[in-house]
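Troubleshooting: if your tokenizer reports a length mismatch, compare your output against this known-good record of 309 residues.
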Amino acid sequence: MPKIGLSTHTIRVRQRYKRGDSFEFLGSFGERHSLYEVAHELLTLLAAGHTHNEQQQNLLHIPRLESDGESIWGLIEAGEHGFGSRLVNVKTKKDSYKRSPDDAEMVPHYFLLNLPADTNKGLLILQRFGSRGVQVQFSRALQGAVTETAPRYILDINPHVPHEVMKYLLEGRLKGLTFTRYGLPEEIADAVGLGGKVEEQVKVRTIIDAPRNRFLPRQKWIRDLLENKRSFYEVRNELGFEAESISVTVDYSGSRRTVDFTNPERITPHIDVSDRVVTGPNGHPEFDSIHDYSKDLLRNLAKEIGRQR
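Known-good structure output:
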């Protein structure tokens, strides 16, 4: 059965083309627009019908939508189309359905959007189902609604690493390191018949893996990166590698997780809640179960980002 995960994100509104730490209150940006109202209107439209993006070949629909004036939550279905396939019954091994390119498999995902008017930072919790997620489609729809409502403003949706996950990364047992660079030393390029411009386009990876049932020593630079004590480039120079990226594989909670440390602010390991929510006969989490867990998670996240609620 696919694992059930949750990803967490922060949401902020800023003036277009204006960088820095100047963000608007969610309840009054532009001509005193409310992000809650913008989001609620969009999601209500999705609940009334389907939105179809022909270019990206996906379909969105919200079969369940609830709100309380500050938060909006429910289920969002997302499906891709444009290809055919056949569905096989695992018991009989016979075809049970032939999918056409016009069919979209609508997989439901839980979401919780928290947008208090008196803060400049909202929170978004999205469910993943195995490798499937709706973060891209959900974000694009919400960002598009803000742009349409207030063209001078833009919505920033960024990953947030909960302290719980950060703790696992810091304490996780190190299974491997991967250093990636572009370009080959001239002597190696010549030896394998490469050279010139091709030489610069080649990826070279140095992989260090721990033996079976063993782990690599803990690396202080990993903690420094996670705690923003040193930048990626500082670590790269100190290690003596001309790497364009550094990936770390850790083992925690019985699974392996690979994290790209090239851009630490984009680290987004998901919280595996498979054993913390009740799963229904259809293989998906029961709504009340995942909603209760997410409400507790939301309270913790609000404290982590400095909000009182």
